[in-house]
């Protein structure tokens, strides 16, 4: 079995998936991720908007050290955060379908599904694109959580239940392969969004999209010179919160993303309830070897299938009301040492 996992009707050989990004925007990029051993590969998102494609012209990437310094170009290190602007693939739909078909064919021959991705602009257009993609890929991911949606109308970030339900229902009706819906982490109730996506027909839900970010440089400007999208190891517990809460509340397969850099991080996503984990920033920093290492480490830990491990952290996780009183540690400000007693 070796880490085999099933997500909303799609079986993959291991739970370490490559998430959508510029790394998966070309045929070569898709093939490199397949060959590095990914369980599945999500292709770069497309949509119908010319503005979303133009937005790639202003893409920029700032890697940020743990103590907040922007690294010089080309010197990112494991554990860095990434603040960036990004756009969508600059390719016509027909050409993109050819690339997807080539990637999917390469993946299928090696047991690695290559998944098409749409970042929402108009739901009707997303449905048309999804229908065409379903002819060449075994599953489609609909991203309705893009943080860039807060900065530009070429992509949309949905944070309300009704909007999520309507968009997913429209795309679901057109797509006859498994449909995964990637949600934002920035909403007051992400579990409610997941419920809406599921009731509208999503086969699995991806949790959670990156957060908006802003990093002043203290010289009158800011990193990238704009707002951006932020991923970092510090995002991990925030992502896991929504994965765990959704796993506890709903019966829907979950795909984790946002903050997994190490084998332990991937396992934590699984323990919180994800059946697969989409990784991106760690691969930008460390290349395909990182992916190969993650897959080997996760497989070695799991031994057999991922199934029994998924959600294992929830059995002993209590609500505040059920936690028995604990002794405050001596170092807390309200204990003797700090109050001078
Ligand atoms: C440069 C970059 C481009 C991305 N582009 C897309 C995209 O087109 N569609 C999408 O659904 N997610 C996109 N993402 C989000 C990733 O798929 C992933 O969910 C996110 O980076 C969190 O995972 P990480 O912490 O492993 O980076 C992008 C992320 C990065 C860093």
UniProtKB/TrEMBL annotation:
What organism is this sequence from? Amycolatopsis saalfeldensis
- Cell membrane in keyword set: no
Q: Do the record's keywords include Oxidoreductase?
A: yes
Protein's name according to its UniProt entry: Dihydroorotate oxidase B, catalytic subunit
Give GO terms: molecular function aspect only.
Answer: dihydroorotate dehydrogenase activity
Q: By its UniProt entry, which Pfam families does this protein fall under?
A: DHO_dh
Per the record, what is one GO cellular component? cytoplasm
Task: Provide the Dihydroorotate dehydrogenase catalytic domain boundaries.
Answer: 77-298
Functional pathway: Pyrimidine metabolism; UMP biosynthesis via de novo pathway
């Amino acid at each position: 079995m070796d880490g085999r996992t099933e997500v909303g009707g799609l079986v993959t050989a291991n739970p370490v998936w490559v998430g959508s990004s510029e790394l998966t925007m070309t045929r070569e990029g898709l093939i490199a991720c397949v060959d590095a051993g990914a369980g599945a590969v999500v292709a770069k998102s497309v949509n119908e908007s010319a503005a979303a494609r133009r937005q790639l012209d202003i893409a920029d990437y700032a890697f940020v050290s743990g103590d907040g310094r922007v690294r010089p170009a080309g010197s990112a290190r494991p554990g860095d955060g990434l603040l960036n602007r990004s756009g969508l693939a600059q390719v016509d739909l027909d050409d993109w379908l050819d690339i997807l078909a080539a990637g999917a064919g390469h993946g299928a021959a090696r047991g690695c599904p290559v998944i098409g991705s749409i970042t929402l602009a108009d739901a009707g257009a997303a449905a048309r694109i999804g229908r065409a993609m379903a002819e060449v890929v075994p599953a489609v991911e609909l991203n309705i959580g893009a943080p860039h949606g807060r900065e530009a109308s070429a992509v949309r970030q949905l944070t309300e239940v009704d909007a999520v339900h309507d968009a997913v229902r429209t795309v679901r009706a057109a797509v006859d392969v498994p449909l995964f819906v990637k949600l934002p982490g920035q909403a007051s109730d992400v579990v409610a969004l997941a419920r809406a996506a599921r009731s509208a027909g999503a086969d699995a839900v991806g949790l959670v999209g990156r957060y908006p970010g802003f990093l002043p440089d203290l010289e009158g400007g800011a990193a990238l010179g704009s707002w951006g999208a932020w991923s970092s190891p510090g995002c991990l517990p925030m992502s896991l919160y929504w994965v765990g809460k959704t796993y506890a509340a709903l019966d829907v397969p979950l795909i984790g993303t946002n903050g997994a850099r190490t084998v332990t991080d991937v396992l934590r996503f699984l323990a919180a309830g994800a059946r697969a984990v989409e990784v991106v920033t760690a691969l930008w920093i460390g290349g395909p070897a990182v992916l190969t290492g993650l897959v080997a480490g996760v497989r070695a830990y799991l031994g057999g299938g991922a199934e029994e491990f998924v959600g294992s952290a929830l059995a002993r996780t209590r609500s505040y009301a059920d936690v028995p009183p604990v002794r405050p540690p001596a170092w807390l400000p309200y204990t003797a040492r700090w109050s001078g007693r």
